[in-house]
Design a protein that fits this description.
Strand content of chain A: 5-15%
Helix content of chain A: 55-70%
Strand order of the largest sheet of chain B: 1-2
Shape of chain A: globular
Number of helices of chain B: 9
Helix content of chain B: over 70%
Distance between the termini of chain B: 49 Å
Number of domains of chain B: 2
Strand content of chain B: under 5%
Number of strands of chain A: 3
Radius of gyration of chain A: 15 Å
Order of helices and strands of chain B: HHHHHHHEEHH
Largest sheet of chain A: 3 strands, antiparallel
Distance between the termini of chain A: 18 Å
Oligomer: heterodimer
Structural class of chain B: mainly alpha
Number of strands of chain B: 2
Chain lengths: 109, 210
């Protein structure tokens, strides 16, 4: 199995967050676990980068947060993507796939 | 139910953060929710809840550095940005005016750009990019992006020095001094500001078309 990575490039993390939120509204913990599950153990999302990245995206208007309650009543912030965020997600996806292609052709087998 | 030690750790961590008060509440609620989710998951999977909570909290020093870099920008309202723009404009106008020949050229250009950058709200460039990417709203004449704090600051600092200089010219004219000198450095912030808006505006448009 591939080695687990816990340092995701900042731009890549933003792209991953936007891609996940484009499919469903999620709170921080659920978002981190969903990204890790998708990566099938190859990725560990660090809280030290997740929440600051979410807050940056919120500042930029790419995501918005709403307060809800967890089943036990504690306060929870759920993030959803905005239309500006959907456009940014599309651009970021194309950009990172192009980078991956380029690296694959430069460094690949 | 909940690990009190972790709660204490979270409270201590949040209290020590150098961020606006309302953002402190957001960070606190998110960290508690995050840790509690990790504890619940660990209990379901038969893992040690305390270890899971500690792991979920991760490297607090790294989190502190990142949050303190991001959160202050939430404090910036349009009024706050406008006040910063007015302060920058006054400093630029007075420095260029009082500096006379020494501030007429490159030194004046660099100084006024440096003042505009130094007075800008935290993460102003990121905010500006976000504002330029926002959905356009249709006005009476044109469709444009809504004006947020970053655009407020940019337009205030672009126009503010000229308002001050015009006031100075009019005041001096009443005193009999009718000679007006317009050094190149007076236009550096305008040129820099519009160049920034052009570059970031084009980038935002390209991103929207992609």
């Amino acid at each position: 199995m591939a080695r687990t990575r816990d340092v995701v490039p900042r731009g890549a993390l933003r792209a991953l967050i936007l891609a996940a939120l484009a499919e469903a509204d999620l709170h921080g913990y659920a978002l981190a676990r969903q990204l890790e599950e998708r990566a099938r153990g190859m990725l560990k999302i660090r809280e030290g980068s997740l929440y600051p990245a979410l807050h940056e995206l919120e500042l930029e208007g790419a995501v918005e947060a709403t307060w809800t309650r967890a089943p036990d009543g504690r306060r929870r912030r759920v993030y959803s993507i905005t239309s500006a965020g959907r456009r940014a997600a599309k651009g970021a996806r194309a950009e990172w796939l192009a980078i991956a292609d380029m690296l694959h052709s430069l460094l690949g087998a | 139910m909940y690990d009190g030690i972790m709660r204490e750790e979270i409270e201590r961590f949040v209290a020590a953060l150098a961020i606006p008060e309302d953002r402190r509440l957001v960070v606190r609620a998110e960290l508690i929710d995050h840790v509690e989710c990790a504890i619940e998951a660990a209990r379901k999977e038969g893992r040690d809840p305390e270890a899971a909570a500690r792991e979920a909290l991760g490297n607090l020093e790294a989190l502190r550095r990142s949050l303190e870099a991001v959160e202050p920008a939430f404090r910036i309202s349009r009024l706050h940005a406008f006040v910063r723009g007015v302060v920058a404009s006054l400093v630029i106008a007075v420095v260029i005016d009082l500096g006379t020949t020494s501030m007429a050229g490159a030194l004046g250009m660099i100084t006024s750009l440096a003042v505009a950058i130094a007075c800008a709200p935290p993460r102003a460039l990121d905010m500006l990019r976000g504002e330029l990417r926002a959905r356009r709203v249709r006005g009476t004449v044109l469709a444009s992006v809504p004006i947020g704090p970053a655009l407020t600051y940019v337009f205030t600092v672009l126009s503010g020095p000229f308002v001050v200089w015009i006031a100075m010219i009019v005041t001096r004219a009443f005193g009999g001094h009718t000679e007006v000198d317009a050094p190149w450095s007076a236009f550096s912030v305008v040129a820099g500001g519009y160049l920034l808006l052009l570059v970031e505006g084009l980038r935002a448009r390209r991103a929207a078309e992609a």
